[in-house]
Write a structure and sequence with these properties.
- The protein has 464 residues and is of the alpha+beta class.
- It is built from 8 helices and 26 strands.
- It has 4 domains: 37 residues; 128 residues, no CATH class; 126 residues, no CATH class; 140 residues.
- The strands form 3 sheets. The protein has a 9-stranded antiparallel beta sheet.
- The radius of gyration is 34 Å and the shape is flat.
- About 2% of the residues have low confidence.
């Protein structure tokens, strides 16, 4: 009969557990939800808000309106918005809750800073309702900020963090991006400097290849052009100096220190003009965009990122081989020899002369080396081509399924270095690729980095 007693005990336990779960978990969650809803100031959804008006004594009044799901500033200027800033403001306003009730029926709002002019007044339309939030002074003990609804006399405290989320001015809410194009839309790039330097390149059809019409012999590097385009695309106004583009001369923008013109698909264009730095240490410069009708301040670093002339965009890649195509590497470095074969992506093994292999313990050294070689650029071509060294310090052969893709040979990176005019210390590298041998001057640091990577591959494998 003991099993009957066990069933009774189990049933009692289940009843107690169910009681606890219902009243202590479910009901508690319902109570907490009800309390949270009771603290909501407006009880509405963000997508119900269709118009906003923000007023503060130290800022111009800003009006915004949502039409067909998109927000726009209508006053004091007509402008697109900084989407993330407006969405943050609207969602904060819709979900706003009070922290502490200070007075249920306040008779005098002055002690709370809630009489005109209040530090912040937000009027907004939600559905068919016109609502208002008044935000006053900070609580003296730092617990929050006094606030009330415009149609009620109850005063409460808002969490301190809400002040910065709600107190937005025109410059924070208006669009700051100078352009809206994407890099894929750009078909032409022109850059003019005030001293006459500059460049002009065009995209070949719908490909990623670029060419210079005035230098058909020059190979242009796609990543360099894209970097310039992206620098312009991501440029943002840090502050607004003057509305409209009528006073460009007074801001050093007519003529400009630098002018960038972009040709876009669909016969569209985009133009950026930049002023010179006011001082060497200046962190901002004035700028104007063809898509943003205002003179703005932008990061002065853009001047350093822009190329001076066409040679700055030249493809000076040491090798044309892509790192992903290399499946086998053979090398000689001083007295050391190595032979690595790729098993699968990012997995390599080191082969002995007998043909036996052992997985590389740190294959990333080799992967990193191949990537660095793909990105490496030479300083200049050496012509006429000198004879290759009889006993080179280093020789690296890059292969794919036994087919040689490229062979690099160079002398030691220590000792007396060549010092090109205005350049860094360099060494000659003989590159055999596509049936031709070309000699380049490459920075000593780049070759030392390659040697260090090859040394680490062998040393890591020999460690116990």
């Amino acid at each position: 009969m003991k099993w009957r007693h066990s069933l009774i005990y189990l049933a009692v336990l289940l009843v107690i557990a169910g009681y606890y779960y219902f009243f202590e978990v479910v009901k508690q969650a319902e109570r907490e939800k009800a309390e949270a809803e009771a603290k909501k100031i407006f009880s509405l959804q963000a997508d119900q808000i269709s118009a906003l008006e923000l007023s503060a004594p130290d800022k111009p009044q800003v009006r915004l309106k949502r039409e067909e799901g998109e927000w726009r500033i209508t006053d004091p200027v007509a402008s697109d918005v900084e989407k993330s800033a407006v969405e943050s403001l609207v969602s904060t306003l819709a979900g706003l809750s009070w922290e502490v009730e200070v007075a249920r029926e306040a008779q005098d709002f002055k002690p709370f800073g809630l009489t005109d002019p209040v530090p912040l007044k937000i009027r907004f339309t939600a559905g068919d309702r016109e609502l208002e939030l008044l935000v006053g002074e900070k609580n003296p003990v730092g617990r929050g900020t006094y606030a009330r609804r415009g149609d009620a006399s109850r005063v409460f405290l808002l969490e301190t963090a809400n002040w910065s989320l709600l107190n937005k001015g025109l410059d924070e809410l208006r669009r700051r991006a100078l352009f809206t194009f994407t890099p894929e839309e750009v078909t032409g790039l022109s850059l003019e400097w005030a001293d006459g330097a500059g460049l002009h390149v065009l995209r070949d059809g719908g490909s990623d290849a670029w060419r210079a019409p005035e230098r058909a012999d020059m190979k242009i590097k796609e990543s360099k052009v894209r970097n310039v385009i992206e620098q312009v695309q991501w440029l943002r106004a840090q502050s607004f100096v003057e509305e409209g583009l009528a006073g460009l001369e007074s801001h050093g923008l007519m003529p400009p220190h630098a002018r960038i013109r972009l040709q876009l698909v669909g016969e569209r264009t985009a133009e950026l003009t930049l002023a010179v730095k006011d001082a060497d240490a200046a962190r901002q410069i004035k700028a104007a965009s063809s898509e943003l009708p205002a003179v703005v301040q932008v990061d002065a670093g853009i001047l350093e990122d822009l190329p001076r002339d066409l040679p700055a965009l030249e493809d000076r890649s040491l090798i044309g081989v892509k790192s992903r195509d290399v499946k086998e590497v053979r090398w000689t470095l001083g007295q050391a020899r190595g032979h690595a074969v790729q098993l699968e992506s990012n997995q390599w093994e080191l082969r002995a002369e007998s043909g036996q292999g052992a997985p590389l313990k740190e294959p990333w050294h080799l992967s990193s080396l191949l990537w660095d070689l793909q990105q490496a650029e030479y300083q200049r071509k050496v012509e006429p081509t000198p004879e290759s060294p009889q006993e080179p310090h280093a020789r690296m052969e890059l292969l794919d399924a036994g087919r040689t893709l490229a062979v690099l040979t160079w002398e030691g990176t220590s000792g007396v270095e060549q010092q090109p005019a205005g350049g860094a210390a360099s060494k000659k590298v003989w590159v055999e690729e596509g049936g031709q041998t070309t000699v380049f001057e490459v920075s000593r640091e780049a070759l030392q980095k390659a040697e260090e990577s090859l040394t680490r591959v062998l040393s890591a494998q020999s460690e116990k």
